[in-house]
Amino acid sequence: MRKVISYYIKTKGSPPIGLPGNLTESNLENFQKEFDKHRKSNHNGTKEDWAQAAIRDISFGKAREKLGYGIFEIELLEYTNINGIKNIPRKVNIISRPT
């Protein structure tokens, strides 16, 4: 990610306004677990609340926060049941924006 940011600065004169991505494999699995954990601990929260808390708890979000991209636009898609966890997003798209 640092290389991408450096490339933007070098070629365009400023860092990117957002870092798009989607969660796959272990990042998605970790997000799903954290999403469910926050849903269980914050019954009055919304899916957006749980998603925001979950992304900050996993390495994907922590790495982007460390780079200064800690504002997250999260799109949750296609809910499913996996490994005994019910109604969790199967697809997660994210745009990280500078803080």
Summarize the structure.
By secondary structure, the protein is α+β, with helices and mostly antiparallel strands.
List the helices and strands and how they pair.
Layout: H1 2-12, E1 19-22, H2 25-41, H3 47-57, H4 59-66, E2 71-82, E3 85-97
Antiparallel strand pairs: 1-3, 2-3
**Helix content percent band:** 40-55%
Low-confidence stretches: none
Our estimate of the beta-strand percent is 25-35%
Name the average pLDDT. Answer: 95
What is the element string, with H for helices and E for strands? HEHHHEE
Give the overall shape: elongated
Q: Going across the biggest sheet, name each strand in turn.
A: 1-3-2
Biggest β-sheet description: 3 strands, antiparallel
How many whole angstroms does the radius of gyration measure? 15 Å
DSSP summary: helix tally: 4
Number of strands: 3
Structural category = alpha+beta
Q: How far is the N terminus from the C terminus?
A: 16 Å
How does this structure look, described?
- 47% of the residues lie in helices and 29% in strands.
- With 99 residues, the protein is an alpha+beta fold.
- Helix 2 packs across helix 3.
- The longest helix has 17 residues, at 25-41.
- The model has no long low-confidence stretch (mean pLDDT 95).
What brief labels describe this structure?
alpha+beta, three-stranded antiparallel β-sheet, 4 helices, 3 strands, 29% strand
